Structures are given as structure tokens and as C-alpha cells.
Amino acid sequence: MPRRPTRRRGHHVILLVVTCVCAALACAPASLALEPDEIALVVNSRVPAGRELAEFYARQRHIPDGRIIEVDPDPMSGSGLADEIPFTAYEPRVAGPVRQWIVSHGLRGRIKCLVTFWGMPLRIGPRKLTLPEAGELDSLKGEMTALRGSIEPQIAALERSAVELDPKFAAASGKELAQLIARFAAAIEALSRSLPQVVDPAARNTRFLELISVAESLLGSDRATELMSRPALSRLAPRPPTTQDAARANQNIQRAEQALAEANGYDPDTARRKAVRELARKSLGAIGEAQVLAAQIDTFRTEESQSALDSEMALLWWRGYPRARWLLNPLQWRGKINPLPSPAPTLMVTRLDGPSVQTVRSLIETSLQVEAQGLVGQVVLDARGLPASESYGKYDQVIRNLNDLLQARTSLKVTFDDKPELIAAHSVKDPIALYCGWYSLRNYQPPGPFAPGAVGFHVASFELISLRGRDEHGWVRGLLSDGMCATVGSVAEPYLQSFPRADEFFGLLLTGKLTLAEVYWRTTPMVSWMQDCVGDPLYLPYKRNPPLRVEDLPSNLRGAVEGF
Fold it and tell me: Residue 182 to residues 19, 189, 442: CA-CA distances in angstroms?
């Protein structure tokens, strides 16, 4: 499983903020606190067994009546049991119908978690541009080149002014959009420092008006007003913006953002994209228009555009975001410390699926039984003996961290292996409650028997390619077949950094404070990507007699439980 460079999709926000010039917009993760009435169940209308399982689960977990959403993901699949649907089918046949159902039932603000069932596809196939799309992309790139060409001279004029006032100011170079924004911010900062030193009021006013003119052209009048409200600039203005002026500008900006989002839609087409650019041109200035244009160009990227259906559905309320590669998960607990820009709420999504209908039914029944009694069994951790300084060794260290925590803070029996070889199949004799190991690619070798209600995952690529294929030897199918009730796997190459950290995932689970869905979604790093969580979202295996107290967790991880 190769590690890939840290390059990822940029955060997609219809209106990107010039963070060095104006206040950054950020949304902290919403409180999760998952309850049965915050869940909706998604089934394939062509698979009656999936609906029967959903009805059974709803009765067992007291999900409110009428919470089953039927969709038809791929009518070409015949029986409906397809592992993958075409990229073009996702929005019209899955996301759109689910979104419409939630809205029509007045549940948009209520549903926090979706559960997909037996019969729903695992994966969305890769995107391929049509000839018209490729033509539009070329046109958008041409527009961007022209727009950058009109922005750069205006910034260069401000830079010249800044150099004239302060010869020590060194203007940066670069004509890409991010570079232009950085140059603009640096020039404004330099002028903010230098203008108060200009003795001649007329000369100072002339340069200030030049700055205002460029700011209005590049940011739009409302963002320029916000900029001029900064103390360093407001004291230079002949008529500084009042508090009312700044508040009115902020309201106008918020209205513009909302209008842009609505115009963009969930599945933007050529006409929508053009309308968004026109709105941006009128209200956001040249830089705002260029940012919208850059976001539109980004949505045409096709590299690594396949994804787990459930991971994509987490972004059900996000409008027109890019689908190539991944986005950082706004629900991850680390986002509480460094909030991630999020244009809309993010949902938790888990799956109740398996090699057979009976496997799924048993999973539901066992989860409830174990939850009432408490999960009992040992922990098996299978590291590889790699030094933490190596790229792969970083995940080895995560497993070692978990071992250290369990040894120091719990009385659980832990079987810990830190040798290159995988723990020999069936060599562990006592029942296993928790398991984490790696890296036996699509070659399931259980270390021993799993206790009823066991939770665990194997860190390796492609372990959830299929659950029902005749020649399927992935770990997800194997673990579920052997009685595990909750696991994690990837539907395509996920890269190592996309897996939940073992010390975080199992550490939170062992406190008994968070449901399976909350544990997974607070620790999985990426969305619109390859990972999937199979299990009852409400499962609390350590609800009774939790082995770890919240205060036993590392200090930084405690916030993942508290304060949401």
C-alpha cells in the first residue's frame, strides 16, 4: 500500500476567502451525539432482502417509522447486487433521491447518520470526461489565463507604490492565482505600514485612493469595505467605514455566498457554472471570480475519482465539490483544534452489509446482545517492527502507542507482536475482542477466534473490493464471515494516511462514550475517498464496564469525547 505525497484536493468553498486580507471563514465540527431518531436507512429498491434487513434493524434499534429511503442505484445491474455504479449514476440515482427524501420529510436538520444496507453498491466508478466537458474545461482554463492577466498589473501597481514608499519592500514573483493573492496581501500590508509615514496629506490620499480602487476591483466593494475597516487602514481613510458600513458589507457578502452556492447546485452543469461566474464577477471582484473559476476547473479533475459510496454520501449537502482524490474530514476530532472550512454539514455514514443476508442479521443481533452484556475478550495487535522514522513505520508506531496505552491504563489481556511476519493464522487461542494488524494484502489470515461482537480492522489496500465475489479473499469479508461485528476497509487503493489511527480509534471505542459511527467519523481522516465502515452505527461494545476512562486517554485525544 504505497504512501502518496500529501497533495490533496483544495477545500472546496464556493467563495474562497482571501485569508491574508480578510477574516477566514471556518466551521467547527458539529456536535454528533448520535441518537436513533437522527438516523435514516438507505436501501436498493431492487433488493428486497436489503429492505427486510433495514426493517429488522429499525425495529431492533427503535429507529422512527418511515425512515427507510429506497433508491435505484443502477437499473442495468439486473439483480441490483452490483459492487460498483458508474460515476454518472451517483448524483441522479443515489445522492439526489436521498437528498430529496430528507428534505421532503422535513428532516434536513435532523438526520446526522445514514446507514446503507445489503444491496447498495460499495463503490462509485472513476470519472471520464465527455467531449463537451473537455471542451468546457479548455475554455475555463483560457478564461483563467485572461483573468490572471488582468489581475497581475493591478497588483504590480500597488507593489510599485509600496517600493516607492519603502525601498526595503521586496515584491514577490509569480502569476498563479495563489501567488497573486499572496502578492496582493503583502502589498497591502506594506502600504498599511508605509502610508502613515507620508507627510504630505495630498500625496498620502492619492496613494490611499489608488489602494482603494485596486481593492474594489479585485475584491468587490463589500470586501474592500471590510478591508478598509481594519484599524491600520481605516485611520488613513478620508471617510473610514463605520461599524454599520462594515456590518452591511458583511451581510452582503453572506448573501453573495448563499446565492453562489444555490446557483452552483449539487450537480452543476455548464449553464450553472456560467451563472456562478457571472454572480462572482458582479459581487466578488476579479480575485473572487478567479477563485470561483479555479474551483470550477478543479471539479473537472478525473485522477483517482472513484470512491466508496458511503464516503461520498457523507458530503450529501455539499454543492459542486471536486471529486478527484480526497477531502479532509470535517468531523475528525483534530478539526476541533484546527477547524476545517466546511461549506455544508457533513454526515456520518456506515454500512450494514456482509457476505450473506444471514451474516448481516447476525451482526445486528450480536451487536445488541453484546452491548447489553459488555464485550469480553483479549486485544491482538500485529505491528511489523518498523522504525517510526520510516514512512510505513509511522503506522507501526501508532499500533505501538495503542499497546503502551492498554498496558499502562487497562487490565485487558493484550497479545502484541512487533515482528515483520504476520501473526500465524489461528495461533492465538483465546477469543479476540479487538484486532488491528497489517499488511497481508487480500490474503485473509485470522490470528484466532473472534469473540461475539468483536471490532477490528486490517490495514491493507483493496480489502473491501467485494463482499460476495466467489474469489474474494479480502479481510473485510473474512472478518465478517468469522463473526466480527464492526470493521473498516477500502474499496480501492486508499493510501496509508487515510486509515483511522489505531490508538485513536480503539482508544475512543474503549471509553464506552461514543457509538461506532462517532468513533469512526471522529478518527477517519478523509471523505469522498476509499474507506468504509461496516457495522451498526449505534453499537457501544463497551457501554458497560469500559476498560478506559476518558481521563486515561492522551490529553489531546480527550477532546474527541468531551466538548462536542
Answer: 9, 11, 46
